[in-house]
Amino acid sequence: MIRFYFHPTPNPAKISLFLEESGLDYEVVPVDTSKGQQHDPGFLAINPNGKVPAIVDSDGPDGRPAAVFDSTAILMYLAEKTGRFLGRPQDRPQLLSWLLFLGTGLGPFSGQAVHFQYAAPAGLDYAVNRYRREAERHYKVLDDHLANRTFIVGDEYTIADISAWGWLDKAPKVLKGAEEPLAPYPNIARWFRLVDARPAAARARKVGSDIAFKKVNDEETRRALFPSNFPPAS
Fold first, then answer.
1. 133: domain range?
2. Which residues form the GST C-terminal domain (predicted)?
3. Which of 120, 151, 203, 210 is the most exposed place for a label (fewest CB within 10 A)?
4. CA nearest 213: which of 90, 38, 19, 71?
């Protein structure tokens, strides 16, 4: 059994998609980040970085429970555990390269673009431009790579595609104001339609839909999501 620590945001969405694709038995454990539950000691024992997603696999490599955090690490762990969505052995160098491109580039720059366009105080035009342009640059790198390719790595659907789906599903929010955000990236658009049409993608979108997560953006939420913006309690 996989205990899946979840909030309805792009990085957990990647794990939802893998779990639905693989058919692994899992239980959703909600972590309401707007209430600060990611900072609870019990969760920090699983992920000291205080971020979702995280998992606890009751049947770890040595037969004991294993905790894994960071969406890229979880995808690699689950793919190796199941032997699925890893592609061909000869494609592993490219798989690692593109997973890290997504995990350290496209995802974080997309997240910062969202933050500065929606959550940061007005007047930070340099930061808004910086992160929006970097998100667009990463989109262009991936779009060029996908020319004449069906999937991101090799000839098979892999965890690289699963990873990319999580954030590219949020293109309308990342590329704020764009009427058709993927229009400048036709290869990504084609690829996204293919992945998004998979039955597991529809199931992944429903994960956690029965959980009432906090939606109000008040001071509690801001302190929970951006604690470094506030002075420590005396």
1. 89-197
2. 88-225
3. 210
4. 38
